[in-house]
Each structure stands twice: as C-alpha cells, then as structure tokens.
Amino acid sequence: MLITLVVSAFLIWVMPMLIATYTLTVLVIYGMLGLSLGLIWGFGGILCFGQAAFFGLGAYTYAIAAVNIGESTVPMVLAVLVPAIFAALLGAMMFYGRLTDVYLGVITLVVTLILFKFVNSSAGPQFVIGKARMGGFNGIPGFQTLNVPGNPDAYVWGDPYFYVCAVALVIVFLLVTCLLRSSFGRIAIGIRENETRMALMGYDVAVRKTILFAIGAAIAGLAGALFANWAEIVTPGLFSLGQSAEIIIWCIVGGLGTRFGPILGAAGLAYLKFVLGQQSMIDNTLITGLILVMFVLFLPKGLVPAVAALWRISFGRTRRKPQRTGRRRARHG
Amino acid sequence: MDLGFVIFIEMLYAVASLVLISAGLAVVFGMMKVINLAHGEFMMLGGYATITAVGLGVNVFVAMLVIAPLIVGLIGLIVERLVIRHLYGRLVDTMLATWGLSLVFIGLATMIFGNTTTGISTPIPGFTVGNYQINGYNFFIIVVAIVLVIAMLAVLKGTRAGLIARGTMQRADMAAALGYSPDRIYMATFFCGAALSGLAGAVLAPLVGLVPTSGGAYIAKAFITVIAGGPSLIAGLISSATSFGLVSQIFTFTISPVIGEVALLVAAVILLRLMPQGITGRFFKGKL
Amino acid sequence: MSLNRRDFLGRTAALATTTSLIPMAALATSDSIKLGSILDSSGPFDAYGKPMDQAMRLAVSEINAAGGLLGRMIDVTAYDTQSDMALYSQYGQQLTRQDKVDVVHGGILSASREAIRQTMRKSKTLYFYNVLYEGGVCDRNIFINGVTPAQQVEALVPYAMKNSGKKVYILAADYNYGQITARWIQKFVAENGGEVVGTDFFPLDVSDFGSTIAKVQTAAPDLVIAPLVGGAHLSFFRQWAAAGMKDKIALASTTLGVGNEHKVLTAAEGNGIMCAYNYSQELDTPENAAFKEKWAAMYDGDQSMHEIAVSHYHGIMTWAEGVRQAGSLKRDAIIDALETGISIMGPGGKVTVDPKTHHAVLDVHLMEMRDQQMKVIETLPQRQPVDTQAVCDLSANPDDNTQYEIEI
Fold first, then answer.
1. Are B229 and B25 in contact (CB under 8 A)?
2. C378 or B216: whose pLDDT is higher?
3. Total domains, chain B
C-alpha cells in the first residue's frame, strides 16, 4: 500500500512534465476504465464484451443529471450508482441463468449494441429527460462540468482536474486492492478458477458474481462521468462496439490477472493512438490491429506479467516475497 | 394482397440475408470452435474484390459468385496458416486475435481503397407486383441463400470430404488416428468458411455502399445468430436466422427499421437467457 | 513526511517552470496569423471534409501569395476529427486552449457545430461555420456562410412540387439537421398547398432501406424529399433506383450533391433528382472558371470541389476581408468590420454578410442532376436568410446565444 502511494505520487508529479495534462487526464480516465474490466475479467473470470455500456451510461447519466440539476455533486454520485444498478440487474439475469463464457460475452455485446442503437436514434424532440434533450447522434453538449461541491461557479478544469482524476484513480486502485485481499476477493478468484468447486463448497456463486459485476460497472461509470467532464460532450459513440473492443484490447495488452496491467495497457495504447492520429502515413486501425495480433500470439499474458517475468529472471533470487494471501491464511490459522 | 406479397418477400429476404451473413461464421465456429471476428471484414473484402473485378471488366455475376469467394478464401487460408493455427482450443484468444486481424484488414482497406463510398448498381432490375415495385435483387439473394444451404447440406451429408469434416468436428483425435490430418482439414474448412463470407459480402455489395468499416455492421448480427443457433451447424443457422429475421421484420414494418434492429437484439437476449446452449441445444438435437 | 515536503516543493517548482514557459511559447509564433481548422478528413463524412480542407488550403495559399494579411502570413493548424463528434469537442478545446488560434473555420454536420460553438464562445475565439444547415443560430461569435432553409428549402419545395405533385413523403437523417429541416419542409409544403403523407428518420449508419421503400409505396406520394446525410444514406438512392422507383415517384434532396454524391452514383441512379444550392460545378461564371483552374493547378487536375468546399472558401475570404477592413486581429474589431455588410465575389456568386444575423446573403440556383452533373435550371439571386432574420437580431441583442428551432 505504501509503495503504491509513493509510486503514484511520484508519477502524478512527473508525468505532467512529459505529456500535456489535457491528454494525461484522458489517459488516466481510460486507465480507470481498463481497471474496471481488469477487475471483473482478470480476477472474476467474467468476460464482458460490453463494458463500454457502463462507461456510456455513467457519462450520459452525469450529463443528463447535470443539465437538470445544474450542480455537479449529485450527478457524479448518480453516475456511479446508475451503471451499478443496471449491472446488478443484468448480472442477476445472466448469472442466475448460469450463463458462462461465450454466451455471456454475446449477451453483454448485445446489451451494449441495444443501448447504442437506442441512444443513437434519440435525436428527435420527443426524447427528453427533464430538461435534457438526449440528442441522438448530436450528443449532449454544454452541461455543467465538475465544480467544487456547493459552489456551481467554481469550475474544476485543466490542471486541477487532472489531479482530481489521478487521485480518483489511485483511490479506486487502493479500494480494488483491498477488495481483492478481502475474503470476497479471494472467493471471487476462486470462482474464476473453478466455479463448480466453489459452488460445491457452499458459496453462492451467482450473487458474488453479480456483486463483482456491479462493482466493475460502478468503476466504469465513474470513469464515464470523469470523461464527460473532460470532453464536455457525450455522444453515442461511448456505447459503441469499438469502444468495448478497445477496453478488451487494453486488458490483454496490459496483462490480465494483474491490477496495474490494464491501467498500463489503457494509458499506453490510448497515448499511442493519440500520437498515431497526428500522422497519416499508416492507418492507426492497422497498427492497433497488428499490436493486438502480435500480443495474442507472442505475449498472451500481456505486458506486466512479461515484464515481471523478466524482472524475476534478471534479479530473481534477491528477495523472495512471501505470498500475501499465504500470510493472511497463516494469521487466521 | 400485393402488400401481403411484398411483406412476405421482405421477410424471406431478411431471413435469407441473415443466413448469408452468418454462414461463413457458422461453418468456422461449428466445425472448428473458432470464433472468427474478422468475418465481417472478409465480407467487406469480398465486396471490394467484386467491385474491383467489375471495374476490370469481369461480368458482375462471375465476379460475385466465383472470383470474390476464391480471393477471400485464399486470404482466409493465409490467415489460418499464419495466425489461427497456433490458437486452436483457445476460444477467447482466437476471438481476440481475429479481432486484431479485423482491425488490420480495415486499416489495409482504408489505405488501399480510401474511405469514399464506392458501389456498383444492382444487376437485376426491379419489377412490378400489382401496385408495388419490388427490388428484383432481393429475389436473387433469397435464391443464393437457399442454394447455399442446400449445397452445404449436400456436401456435408453426401460427400466423402463432408464425412471426414464431420468426423474431425466430433473427434479430431479419432480422425487423426484413422489417418486424416486434422491440420489439413482445418485449413480446408477455414478456406470454405472464408469463401462463404466473401460470397456473402460480394452478393450484398450492390445493395449498400461499401466502406472499409462495412464489416462492423455485419459481425454483431452474424455472431449473435451463430451463437444463438447452438451446436448444430445448419439446423442452428436456419432456426436462429428465421426467428431473428421474422422478429426484426415484424417490428420494422409496424414501427421503424431502428426498432426492428433493437427488437432483434432484445430477442437474442431473451433467447439466450431461456436457452443458454442455443436453439439447437434444446430443439433439433442431433441434427446436422 | 519528508517525502511529502519534497514532493510538494518539486511539484510547485514543476508548475512554476511550466507556467513560465507558456508566455515564451506564445511569443515564439506571434508573427504569423493562426488559423484553426477542424474537419472530418476521414471516416464516413470525408467526402464532405476532404474537399473543404483542400478549399481552405487553396484560400490560404492565395492570401499568402498576395502578401498575407496585415503583412503577416497565415499559419494553418488543422485537425482531422475522423467523423467523431466527441473528437470535435476535444480538438476544439485544443485549438482554443492550447494552440490559441486567432480564428477557427470548421464543423461540418450540425452536431459538430453545436459541439464546439460554446467552447469557441467561452474562449472568445472567432468561429466560422461554412456549411449549409437548418438555420436559427443566433450567436455573435459565429459567422455562417451556408444556405439556410429560407434560402434553399423554400425555393426547392415549390419547384419540386411543380414538377411532380401535391403529396410529399419526407425521409430525413436522424439528428438536429434532419429533424429541423423536416419541419421546415412540412411548413413549406403546407404553404404551397401540399400534404405531407409521411415522415421517417434514419440514424446515420442505416444503409438498408428495403422496407422503407415498400412503406413509401404504400403511402403513394407524388414526391419524396430526402435530407439524408453521409455515406450510408447514399444507399437509399441506389436501392430506390434498383427497385425501379426512379420513373414512378419524383425525388428531391436538400443534401445530395453537397459531397459530390452525384458523381458517385451512376447516371441512371441520379438522373432527375432535384436540388437547390449556392454552387454547382456547372455554373457558367468567370469566377467559377478561374476557381476551377486554380483548384486543378494546386491539386494536379483534381476537380472535387463541391457546395460546402466552396462555402468554406467563401468563409475564409470573407474573414480575410474582415481582417483587412478592421486592420487588426482583435475579435471585436473584426466582428464590427464584418457587420458593416462586407461582400466578396466567389465561385458561387456574390456573398454578403448580413449584420443582424451573421449569416450570408447568397445566390441560390435550382438544379437537376443529369448525367452525373448538376444542371442549373434557374437562378434566384441574393436571397436573404429570412428564417433566421425573423427570430434573431444581434444588433438589438448582442448577447443572444441560442439556436432557435422552428415550431409548427
């Protein structure tokens, strides 16, 4: 924990000197989004093809609530709750129906498509929630962005906003770490390893998966709300299949089963896309695709485990850290 | 009366187009348990192959039915040798690798053909039924879909190659023990699957403007149709295509095309929830 | 604790260094005028965006070749938004907050304009939107050069109805432009004694119109007006021709041709479609001939200019004229200069700034597509943007910041 805090503080201090905070903010937000899928997929074994649905829901909930309320605190809270509730309902439907694996992936994919199609066709004047026009393809621009709670005119944007997002990511990261170290987390990992065995041991698998799914969605929703504030517009593209695919690619490239891997994958690939977007020699879709294929073929476990393996090989036996979980187990006897 | 006939043709067309766009994916998934997410891009490549061939002066039907499947089949063969071969048995990894490939193809197509919407006119004129005009090309698509299904059935049930393929599908190790190389069979199957995708893309190209990202519109529908179909290849394909096609057309006609699409998706969710193994996991068990 | 103090000191030092660098960065480029461009040069709307980008570069090179503006050269900062509305927002912020440009010419779809209009206004960056649209924007910070419904649709509807009949079916793109234009069409059809028998909206990625065509036939209109937008919607015109509908029901559009779609469709698919714009490549004027030559010279014989590329060219020339008259790059000075009613002669004819609405007074030509060309049938000179004039008066309310939508 202390190491995490120190390293993050260092990074928050150093990175703005290398990359503009405007770009850095969105990298941090994508990192949070990657972490949300990394949590449910890497540690819970739930391959969700539609994580973008929760991202988009968070962003749209924030935008619509902000247009109606005019102050940003309540919308931020709603933006975390609504995707979580939606995920809980969806998860309950899926996990209690014992859907696994590919079929789960298809349903989550379908859900994100439904949301996309619905939101994309809501340009007419009849699509209105309170004071907010849903806008369809136009998206929803011009809503109240993050302000100091209680003071609607004190906007938080630019450099301070970067610090807010970075701190949020660190807090979420620490919360996820605590979750994984708790008994809930270890049981979730057990479910990923062998669901039948965990069920036979008496744990209610469906309810735990649903809760984990909802937590992942809440994180994605928070990322969505932060994104809405950064971009100052929300569009149906946030729900798109392409966005979901990108999140999956980030996790694969970064390293599934680690906490830092998806964050690194997300930030790294998003930055690469940004840099590539400024040149037009080679199409960036081509490069993203090549990266994905190369990684699946040669580094299927992702970057972070590969680097960790390299580290172990080079510096191997200097310090053998005991398994954290092992120590806990010993303590509880 | 005329309206009824028009609606009936439109429904048949919806089912037929779903069959066409899913056939390639179904073959590859049903036989090899590989989910080829580059399927949409194979269709797009088939479309571009057709347009290029027609631009070079080839007869449009030859281009659609012969050249496009061959070219895309070859591309599929290369893909199989280079990428898929290493990933058999790893379902999720093949999905991701083929997704990466789809991005590669989109990028290549954008670089080679550019982003402008190209197209060719439909080669069959419309004709009149009572007070209504129908797109004659829809009939062609329905016919192609029917011929395709019959051909697939004939090859799989009637020929020796089909028998070997089905055997490998059920027990690859036994087929290997009997002297057939699963490697070669997978190669051939992937070639056929890719060729089918190319054919579908070629046949559909005159109807919609082709852009490098056209594949994305098909992959979701094809994926959903194939998964909902279940383990049986042809029975699954037909049953899920029929159910989804009918549902989407009913809603399209009564409300709007967008609601029709959403209805298809909602139907998929309901169907998968009720029948988690796909339609042929419950009904038509054991049929091919 | 010590780490925290060091950390805090370090961060403050870093912040101080970066902030002190900014004024130096601004000084470094203050000898050139910065023009920001934000267009879709790739993606489904690149048929609109690429020629606009070409027109912008042609205009800038012409101005620079003549000595620049106020003795300074124009430097272009261009971003490609890849047909993604969210990228408009991001690049808009980048142009105003980081690159700090002097003027922005950009936006294609009405959705993109609305995505950046408030950012431009908040950062007090002069903004030119040079595309035909649905009218009604009342904002002192923006100047609009494209045709609006009162100029285009009001002339197109009676012309199309005269050639076909009274019953009209509307097929529109499902976003703000399509929705509002559909209402305008309904208004003008009613004013001309006609009847709208159906209105349908299509999201921009819909490319399968088979059931729609059947539905239209059930309604049996005399005329179909189609404000459809983008590459996917182009399929409608193909499928319409494939169904053999070309000879049965007349077709008109407020957007087809704006991206040179009449060259992409075959002659059989395009013949007879009626439209009305400010520009056609077939316009027989000396300005147009000179423009086409300059374009071909700069782009190796290419001739892909279209309506909104020419509007974009007009916009940049108008802005340049405003800068010359104001003698400065200060936004308010340029606005005041433009509000005196500056005119320029462009390939589309005479373009005058209307001071009350910041829109343009333009020639509008009624056209028909024939053999992949847009034949000019009739010219209606110097039409005023009466739709926006009816609701917007920037001299009386300079702080107005609304898009007025027509109510029916």
1. no
2. C378
3. 1
Q: Two tokens at A155? A: 């906007």
CATH number listed for the domain at residues C26-147+284-363+382-403: 3.40.50.2300
Which among A103, A286, A295 has CB closest to B272? Answer: A103
Residue extents of the structural domains in chain C: 26-147+284-363+382-403, 150-277
Chain C interface mutation, best of A14, A117, A138, A246, highest count of C Cβ atoms under 10 Å: A138
Residue B283 lies in a domain: no
pLDDT score, position B242 = 92
Single pTM value for the model = 0.81
C86 Rama sector, left if φ>0, alpha if ψ -120 to 50, beta otherwise: alpha
- C211/B121 Cβ within 8 A: no
Chain B residue nearest residue C259, CA to CA: B116
Report CA torsion sign: C245, C248, C251, C257.
positive
CB contact set of A329 (below 8 Å; sequence gap of 6+): none
Among C46, C209, C244, the residue with its CB nearest the CB of B116 is C46
Mutate to test the interface with B, among A102, A288, A290 (most CBs of B within 10 A): A102
Q: How far apart are CA A216 and CA A57, in angstroms?
A: 13
C-alpha to C-alpha distances, B54 to A216, B61, C255, nearest whole angstrom: 50, 9, 29
Beta bridge partners of A140: A234
Q: How high is the ipTM of this complex?
A: 0.78
The mean of the pLDDT values for chain C is 85
Distance from CA of C113 to the nearest CA of A (A): 9
Domain spans of chain A, in order of start? 20-315
Q: Tens of pLDDT along A203-227? A: 888 898 999 999 999 999 999 999 9
Q: Round to the nearest angstrom and report the end-to-end CA distance of chain A.
A: 24
Nearest CA-CA partner of B16 in B121, B149, B128, B134:
B149
Q: How is domain C150-277 classified at the CATH fold level?
A: Rossmann fold (3.40.50)
